[in-house]
Amino acid sequence: MTTNAVRRIGGALLAGTMALGLAACAETEAGDKEISIGYIPPWSDTRVAAALMTYKAEELGYEVEWEDVGEPPLLFAGVAEGDIDVYASAWAERNHAAFMNEFGDQLEDLGPYYEGAGNFLAVPEYSAITSIDEIPDHAEALDGRIIGIEAGAGLTKQVQEDVLPAYGLDQSMEFVTSSTTAMLAELKGAIDSQEEIVVTLWAPYWAATEFNVRPLEDPQGAFGETEGMHYVATVGFSEEHPEIAQWVSDFLVDEEEFASLENMILNEYEEGEELEAVEAWLEDHPDVFDE
């Protein structure tokens, strides 16, 4: 099993110039055994999804290239334009619904590989806060802040448009956006100091268990129902690559399977060794591709 190739895509993609640099690698004629998969490195579900598809695609005789993209808007644009073939792990039903609608006729939803994903506001286990509607009572201890992730993330949009207004927090709290890495650093620092903090999180995600946090109750139901994590491709992908599309339509992992692979990729193997992690994981889950 060969190690996947990885390249980084900068902000030029958003400006529409990405095609100049990627077209030669990403565009293939029907029947070619070559695909590219876009992922977002800080979001471990995209690495898990990319590794799973890569492993199966290479079994089917494909060459696979990974494209490192910074934020969902860039990745959706790349897939819509055909510069990247597949978005690994799009939260297509809710989190990324706006992008699915924006690029709808240029995208093909291949289907979910995991069902039951969801977003929430989280606090450390020791926190006195139990529900979102209690946040204003602890505003001073929180320095008036709720810590978020990337400004372009679907979770960020959901918090800004649905959650904060539902509880009046758009008027009383500052919602800080920066990056997933920065949010986790803030969370770790607060926990080390036993301070109050509220952050945006989601599951499945390794940090939701690694940092000993818990979701806040959401009595208004502002976060809505859970959703699936999907492979989303450039329109026409299933016609060009029917074997991969058929595999996706038949493939689904459960919570334990996902969590165990995510843990191996993040904690037991180095970046770039994702396929080695999948091979090791398959020793304990030998039938997962046949279920």
Automatic annotation (TrEMBL):
GO terms for molecular function: amine transmembrane transporter activity; carnitine transmembrane transporter activity. CDD domains: PBP2_OpuAC_like (cd13639). GO terms for biological process: choline transport; glycine betaine transport. Keywords: Cell membrane, Membrane, Transport. InterPro entries: ABC_Gly_betaine_transp_sub-bd. PANTHER family: GLYCINE BETAINE/PROLINE BETAINE TRANSPORT SYSTEM PERMEASE PROTEIN PROW (PTHR47737), GLYCINE BETAINE_PROLINE BETAINE TRANSPORT SYSTEM PERMEASE PROTEIN PROW (PTHR47737:SF1). This is Uncharacterized protein. It comes from Tessaracoccus flavus.
